[in-house]
Design brief:
The chain is mainly alpha-helical. The chain has 2 domains: 209 residues, Four Helix Bundle (Hemerythrin (Met), subunit A); 79 residues, PAS domain (Beta-Lactamase, 2-Layer Sandwich). The chain has 10 helices and 2 strands; from the N terminus they run ααααααββαααα. The protein starts with a helix and ends in a 19-residue tail after the last helix.
Length: 315
C-alpha cells in the first residue's frame, strides 16, 4: 500500500513542480520583456526630446534669417510692412529662446546656449538700432552701422553655433535610434525565447498529464482484467468462494456457494456470514474468532485448511 501511495503521489508532485517552474519562467520572461520595453520607451523618449531641441534650433536660425531679410527690405524700401515683419520675427526669436531654456539639451549643446543667447541679443539689438536710425532719417549712420560688418560677424557666429549644437543633438538622436533598434531586437528576441520556453513547458506538463493518464488507464485496465479473471474463476469454480469485508459481511458469493448453501447471491451480499452458514450454537465462537482476527490478526482457524461444520438455508 505504501508503494502504491508513493506511485500515486509521485506524478502529482512532478506535475506541481512543473507548474511552479512554468510560473517562475513565465514571470522571469515577463520581467525581461518589461525591462526591454521600458528601455525601448526610454530610448524613444530621448530621441523625441533631442528631436524637439533640433527643431527649436532650426527655427531660431530660420527666424534670424527672416528678421535680417525684413531688416534689409525695410532699409531698401522703407516699407512699414518690413518693419512689422522684423518685429514679428524678433518676437518669435524671443519665444524660441525661452523654449530652448526649457528643453533638456544634451550637456555638450547646453554649454553653448549662453553664448548663443548673448550673440542673438546683440545681433537683434544692432538690427533694431540700424532700423531706428533709418526711421529717424539718419540713413548714412544706419548704413555705416550695417557696413561695419558687426552684424554679419554675429550672424556667422550664430549660424556656426546653431549648426554645432544641432550636430551634437543629432549625434545623440542617432545613438538613441541605434539603442532603440537594439532594445526592439532584444524585446523581440525575448518574446521569441519566452514563447519557445513556455511552449516547452507546456509540452512537459502535457507529457506529465499524458503519462499520468496512461498509468491510470493501465491500472484501470489491469484492474478490469483482474476483475474479469476473478469473475471467471468465481463463476466456474466448483468450490464455494465467499468474500468478506472488515465487518465480516459478505461481499462475494459465487454460484457454487449459491448451490451449496441455498442463498442467492443477491440475498447473501451485505449480510453477516455467521448468520448465513454457521449453526446457531456455534455462532458466538465463530464471531469471537472473527473479531480476534479482524482486530489483532490473531486466528485459531482462519487462514488454515480445515473441515468445519456449516449449514444450508433449509437447515
Amino acid at each position: 500500500m505504501e508503494g502504491r501511495l508513493r506511485q500515486s503521489t509521485g506524478p502529482s508532485q512532478s506535475l506541481a513542480l512543473g507548474f511552479v517552474l512554468a510560473l517562475l519562467l513565465i514571470g522571469l520572461n515577463m520581467l525581461i520583456a518589461y525591462r526591454s520595453v521600458e528601455l525601448l520607451i526610454d530610448g524613444n523618449r530621448d530621441e523625441a526630446r533631442h528631436g524637439r531641441a533640433v527643431e527649436a534650433l532650426r527655427l531660431v536660425l530660420m527666424n534670424l534669417r527672416t528678421a535680417e531679410s525684413h531688416q534689409h527690405g525695410y532699409l531698401l524700401t522703407a516699407s512699414p510692412a518690413y518693419r512689422a515683419g522684423f518685429e514679428r520675427s524678433r518676437a518669435d526669436l524671443s519665444a524660441l529662446r525661452g523654449r530652448l531654456k526649457t528643453l533638456e539639451l544634451t550637456p555638450a549643446a547646453a554649454v553653448l546656449l549662453p553664448e548663443l543667447e548673448n550673440l542673438l541679443e546683440r545681433r537683434l539689438q544692432l538690427a533694431r538700432q540700424s532700423l531706428a536710425l533709418f526711421a529717424a532719417g539718419q540713413k548714412s549712420q544706419s548704413m555705416s552701422l550695417i557696413h561695419s560688418g558687426l552684424g554679419q560677424l554675429d550672424s556667422t557666429r550664430i549660424e556656426a553655433l546653431i549648426q554645432q549644437m544641432i550636430q551634437r543633438e543629432s549625434a545623440l538622436i542617432r545613438r538613441s535610434s541605434r539603442e532603440a533598434d537594439l532594445n526592439a531586437g532584444y524585446a523581440l528576441l525575448t518574446l521569441i525565447l519566452a514563447s519557445l520556453a513556455n511552449l516547452l513547458l507546456l509540452l512537459l506538463v502535457y507529457r506529465m498529464f499524458s503519462r499520468q493518464i496512461l498509468q491510470r488507464q493501465r491500472s484501470e485496465a489491469e484492474l478490469r482484467e483482474s476483475e474479469t479473471r476473478k469473475s471467471a474463476i468465481l463463476a466456474t469454480s466448483l468450490d464455494c468462494i465467499i468474500g468478506l469485508d472488515p465487518d465480516a459481511r459478505v461481499i462475494e458469493w459465487n454460484p457454487a456457494a449459491e448451490q451449496t448453501f441455498g442463498y442467492a447471491r443477491t440475498e447473501a451480499l451485505g449480510r453477516p456470514l455467521i448468520e448465513l452458514i454457521v449453526p446457531r450454537h456455534q455462532q458466538e465462537t465463530h464471531y469471537a474468532g472473527l473479531l480476534r482476527f479482524l482486530d489483532a490478526g490473531q486466528a485459531q482457524m482462519l487462514g488454515q485448511r480445515m473441515e468445519v461444520l456449516a449449514q444450508r438455508r433449509d437447515g
